[in-house]
Amino acid sequence: MSSAIRSSIRFLLNDQTVELSGFAPDLTVLDWLRIERRLTGTKEGCAEGDCGACTVLVGRMIDGMLTYESVNACIRFVGSLDATHVVTIEYLNRPDGELAPVQQAMVDLHGSQCGFCTPGIVASLQALWLSDPEPGVKDVERALQGNLCRCTGYEPIVRAALAASKIEPDEDNDRLVRAREETARKLIELADGARVEIDHPEGKTFIPASADDLAEIYEANPKATLVAGSTDVGLWVTKGMRAIAPVIFVGHLTDLQTIEETEEGLKIGAGVSYSMARGAILSQVPQLAELWDRLGGEQVRNMGTIGGNIANGSPIGDTPPPLIALGATLTLRKGSARRTLPLEDFFIAYGKQDRAGGEFVESVTVPAVPEDAHFAVYKISKRRDEDISALCAAFLIELDSDSHVATARIAFGGMAGTPKRATHVEECLIGARWGWTAVQAAQAELENDYSPLTDWRASADYRMRVAQNLLTRFFLETSGAPARLDTSEPLMMEAGE
Amino acid sequence: MNKSFKPDVNAETVDGGAHVARPHDSAIKHVTGKAIYIDDMAEPAGTLHAYLGLSTRAHARITSMDLARVRAAPGVKLVLTGGDVPGINDISPAGLNDEPVLAEGEVKFYGQPVFCVVAETRHLARKAAQLAQIEYEDLPYATDVVAAIEAGHDHVCTPLTLKRGDVDAGLARAPNRLKGEMRVGGQDHFYLEGHISMAIPGEDDEVTVWASTQHPSEIQHMVGHALGVPSHSVNVQVRRMGGGFGGKETQGNQFAALAAIAAKKLNVPVKIRPDRDDDMSITGKRHDFHIDYDVGYDDDGRILAFDGTFAARCGFSADLSGPVTDRALFHADNCYYYEDVRLASRPMMTNTVSNTAFRGFGGPQGLIGAERVIEEIAYKLGRDPLDIRKINFYGGEGRNLTPYHQTVEDNIIGRIVEELEESSDYQARRKAIVAFNENSPVIRKGIALTPVKFGISFTATWYNQAGALVHVYRDGSLHLNHGGTEMGQGLNTKVAQALAEEFQVDFAMIKITATNTGKVPNTSATAASSGTDLNAMAAVNAARQIKERLVDFASEKYSVPKETIVFEPNRVRVGNQVFSFAEFIDQAYMARVQLSAAGFYKTPKIHWDRATGKGRPFYYYAYGAAVSEVSVDTLTGEYQVDRADILHDVGKSLNPAIDKGQVEGAFIQGMGWLTTEELWWDDKGMLRTHAPSTYKIPLASDRPRIFNVKLADWSENREMTIRRSKAVGEPPFMLPVSVLEAISMAVASIGDYRTCPCLDAPATPERVLMAVERLKAGA
Ligand SMILES: Cc1cc2nc3c(=O)[nH]c(=O)nc-3n(C[C@@H](O)[C@@H](O)[C@H](O)COP(=O)(O)OP(=O)(O)OC[C@H]3O[C@@H](n4cnc5c(N)ncnc54)[C@H](O)[C@@H]3O)c2cc1C
Ligand code: FES
Ligand code: FES
């Protein structure tokens, strides 16, 4: 259906325009930068999106605005770069060649020791500096969730970020600001609306022109791998060494990136990244705020999509439990046929979802939290940030006028082979008076709903015990006794400095 | 040095001399991505790439190994197995012949390298390595320390016992006695740059190896051993590492040896860089320990007798387990005097990767045993553990002799703790926390102050030597080379500062160059925190030799007494005349003065007799203390560090900014060791936490919310170290024992502080919750 088919991708790399064809469908941005372009400032520390040593900035047009985001070059594929601006550490200094404010602060405040994490840290801090004029300590920490440093203990890095924020980005101190209009114009020009097909001995790469084009290509190539943010698929390649061709990239499709308020709820396109969704989803469901900021690190949130999180079907994905508890529905599309099903029905068994060949996730619709309902989400992991959940719990209950449970929707991740509702617990609660007795009875029912596994993230005992305790926490919170760690403050702070 | 750089010959002080807080010498290169690590070097034409094939059994006989598909894979040029090693198939740093480059016949841990494939690209080599078909016959295995003891495994090396007094009599006599055990987990180094080597073949039997290593001389030795050529044929170079922490003291041997073997066989450069997951599976880690203690104490909490056994998971071979487990014993007293004492090590063979050096080198595991005992006594007596600590500190008549019969002569722990207690407002905060806990059902808080005393010097006495090579060029610029290696700790910066101070030239006049076994031979590992102590002294020694020649020359030429020749900032005063340093040097050159010198240093006073367990293994001690405050969620076991205050002793700091950075970094790394960093083996003996997705080192958001770090600026080393400074790399790693103990206190609040929670490390949220549940159940 597309009028034109291109056989190369075109994007900007620092101050150059690049045209590439004939590349492998699983060629990573990091390997391309380091091996083919010899831009070795960007490092590989893990090749799985967890350490941030490979962080680069990618600029793209979002709602008509040129926006630069930090991303992990190690798990991002070159095929996803069409009509973007890739910026590496080699290009982050000032236009006059001097150190940029972030770099200067890192030097002055001793933010590097071995220096191997440093280019990635500078890239992450640069993204923060460009986007947030007045970051607080928490914002800096959030920007650094996807960057590991083993030497410094981070203290001087956080100080450097705060110091740099005192200087505003402008045309003299930042190349991206200086070239902003020209870059935007070029990116708009590069996005010519053509479908791209790249041939390579390992297999073909498709970059559809639109969601309709995707539907057509996928129907014709039902065995193809869809790649959105590649925060899962990237690891199949770098860690599993799996062949993924043919590949269809979907991360660039703006018609899968819409967020709409509908009668049924917030309709989020499958291609919306965590970062793009943050504003809309948190204003509709503020209770998701903590979870949202603990999903991966900043780079992963900039790339990863809600659609991918769901489609991946992992039992430890973080969005399904709360979305199931909220009663979200999923819309799938194959060719021009669409169907909508409750999200929980999508997950059939471990590794098995209700999705036919050639069918893709188009959107997920998230109803608002009913007025007066109690809703909470808890994520439990070994390390607070950028860690996969040992378990994730979402509770939604509505009480009737005399405090009996009218509705209960409770879902857990990490407790079974799929994200799954706690139906025994729900049944036990419905109709009961919302109090200790009911909570205790419900806790016992958890054992009928789940028999969790023991693995390196947690033992079965711990998972079950915490699941039960989270019901306690939920009850305490609904009765106005919130007690969460993140609200605990150091005692007698004035004795500090 | 920039060509246009002109040192200020009228300056009052040199720029970048000793005791100033200047940035790391590579800081600008770090932040611009221009610092070159080995994988960033331009590869010589024709460079091939090697990758390793690993065992998938914890212990098994290899019954058949079919590598035909590996050989036939696209781009493959060579496949090596153990039999292809031209010299000796061994890289045991202990010289015990227990560590093959590639396993032959039998594999002893899951992930042990059994073959190596060389191909056109790393990607092709890595893919080819997947194609091997290896059949095994399983043999019995034990991966855990206790399981290994139960299975009757051997020790990997000779255990050590330290004794003083009569511990059995002391225990029998003591009014109170307690017995217990503690498990302390291991730790992966997680240097951000993984292991890597690149070997470039030369003529005859020569080969040049670039390796990410803390110990170039050992790489040289091992490569020679594996190739069957003398050390003089092997040149090893390292400019910088992206982190080491002990993980690159011996663990690079395998990679370097294989790159060199393949490079010589094919006569092309060969590079090897394992993927992070493989790096973490193939290379050794901090030893996990199982500690048993039996302690007698009086009603005031004074320890009278201490009997401790420290069993370690050493892995399948000795590597450095001997000195590591020795050092555990050397620190099992921490700051405390034990009247009657017996400390024994048990270096257990386990079917896991061979564990190795890691910041602290066993010391932290010994020290934590001492701190656990203090904590237990405190809970038994209903006292603040800090009171028990103070009463047991070294000091006072007859209370200064360590279990290894070295007298503690430089004890400053009393002053450190006193100042910290005051500046952190410890007493008031502890009261407030106890009060808080009474009214907080879910969130509980804890606080703890723990001290550190750490012995400085390699316990292998001969390691305490270093060399340096200094050239002064005609234009007055200097070339600095020494045997130490830069891994981020700022060694090069500090050595250059010492040199700048000695010559009275600006830091910018000095070029820091890659460590090179051809320039300074027979170097020791950059380890045991000794890098600056040793190498700066050697560099200064070289400088003094050159200066002596210069003084002789000038005194003769200008007929002035030697005392009137003074090196002033960027200039030299000769009697009444003043020359810029460059001018002066050029004159010396014209007069044929040798402007280059090899410096040398060996640490005085130390000796150690392992057989009798007596001596003075340490030149001096470094001290420090920390107070940590935490909040614990008793529903989930999650926690956060609310505040940490540190006072640490680095003597008279050569560079306070770098030293403070070491203290901060060590604290966070040590905190990771004791909290979220968990090594988890499955029942097949496979390490499952072998990547940052599963192995969780601290993030920026795990930092203490308030972090007050101070150096004890009044401290001066009483020994004649380089400008009276003290070593800093390892000692602060033990400060976060205070975090573990603070978590423990928060948990103990559940049982009204009557029961010591006896938290094992790492105190993951799971372990914390289980301890909470234990206390709730009243156990
Ligand atoms: C370092 C790191 C940390 C992480 N932390 C978390 C975490 O804390 N919590 C968590 O839940 N997850 C976490 N993840 C995983 C999470 O990022 C992914 O699950 C992500 O949401 C997937 O989205 P994506 O766009 O990257 O998908 P991709 O990787 O591109 O694709 C994932 C799967 O979905 C399929 N797919 C993608 N889009 C569609 C579509 N429109 N229709 C049909 N199929 C589609 C792909 O074919 C593939 O099977 C982490 C990942 C990394 C690398
Ligand atoms: S290399 Fe670690 S996140 Fe990319
Ligand atoms: S400076 Fe070494 S990892 Fe950050």
UniProtKB/TrEMBL annotation, chain A:
Fetch the InterPro entries from UniProt.
2Fe-2S-bd, 2Fe-2S-bd_dom_sf, 2Fe-2S_ferredoxin-like_sf, 2Fe-2S_ferredoxin-type, 2Fe2S_fd_BS, Ald_Oxase/xanthine_DH-like, Beta-grasp_dom_sf, CO_DH_flav_C
- Domain of life, per the record? Bacteria
Please list the residue ranges annotated as the 2Fe-2S ferredoxin-type domain. Answer: 7-92
Q: Name one Pfam family in it.
A: FAD_binding_5
Q: Where is the FAD-binding PCMH-type domain?
A: 198-371
SUPFAM superfamilies named among the record's database cross-references: 2Fe-2S ferredoxin-like, CO dehydrogenase flavoprotein C-terminal domain-like, CO dehydrogenase ISP C-domain like, FAD-binding/transporter-associated domain-like
A GO term, aspect molecular function: xanthine dehydrogenase activity
The protein's name is Xanthine dehydrogenase small subunit
Q: Which UniProt keywords apply?
A: FAD, Flavoprotein, Iron, Metal-binding, Oxidoreductase
Q: Which organism is it from?
A: Pseudohoeflea suaedae
EC number, UniProt record: 1.17.1.4
From TrEMBL, chain B:
Which UniProt keyword terms apply here?
2Fe-2S, Iron, Iron-sulfur, Metal-binding, Molybdenum, Oxidoreductase
Query: What EC number(s) is this enzyme filed under?
Result: 1.17.1.4
Q: Which residues cross the membrane?
A: none
Q: Which cofactor does it need?
A: Mo-molybdopterin; [2Fe-2S] cluster; FAD; Mo-molybdopterin cytosine dinucleotide
**Where is each Aldehyde oxidase/xanthine dehydrogenase a/b hammerhead domain found?**
32-140
Q: Which branch of life, at top level?
A: Bacteria
Q: According to its UniProt record, what is one Pfam family this protein matches?
A: MoCoBD_2
State the Gene Ontology terms under molecular function.
2 iron, 2 sulfur cluster binding; iron ion binding; molybdenum ion binding; xanthine dehydrogenase activity
The family classification in the record reads: Belongs to the xanthine dehydrogenase family.
Q: Which PANTHER family match?
A: ALDEHYDE OXIDASE 1-RELATED (PTHR11908:SF132), XANTHINE DEHYDROGENASE (PTHR11908)
In its UniProt entry, what is this protein called?
Xanthine dehydrogenase molybdopterin binding subunit
Origin species? Pseudohoeflea suaedae
Quote the gene name from the UniProt entry. xdhB
